[in-house]
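Exercise 3.2. Students should predict the tertiary structure of the chain below and write it as structure tokens, then compare their answer with the key that follows.

Predict this chain's 3D structure.
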Amino acid sequence: MMIRRIPIFLALLCIIGGVFISILFATQEDYFKDHIKQGLSRNIKIQEIADPVKKTETLKSEAEKNWRYFQRFHFHATGIGAMMMGILLFLTQINAPALSKTISSYLVAIGGSLYPLVWLFAGLYGPEMGRTEAKEAFAIFGYMGGVFLLGGVYAMVLSLKYDLEFTVKARLK
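Answer key:
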């Protein structure tokens, strides 16, 4: 059934997105760093700094912190994608009602695949907007981490309430 495949697709998409950006880091690191540098040159708060030494220090510090946001996207997309896949595969082995497993899998997949985007968008828009402002503007994606957590907790509750497939098969022998 197609509706049950979508969470697996989202988990794979998340993992692939995280791996893809790491390949881009390896081949196009200058592109990311130039994007950050250009954004910081348009950042009003930084450009208003009168002291040239402080401005240079701030530009360097902000460039490093914004670069870290791109890396966080990679770490979170691949790591959470792998956790999503594990939870989704675990759900296939629980003898719970199909609707309960579907709800849990969608919470895990939607929350897990959207959460890493907060870091991608913070990396893309943070240099010009400001790091705090960018994270606040895209906070909805950060909140998706809670949706992922709810799905994982629900899967855990299901695993406590219902037997696992291999447990049932072992009893039948």
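Discussion points: The chain has one domain: 2-162. The chain has eight helices and no strands.
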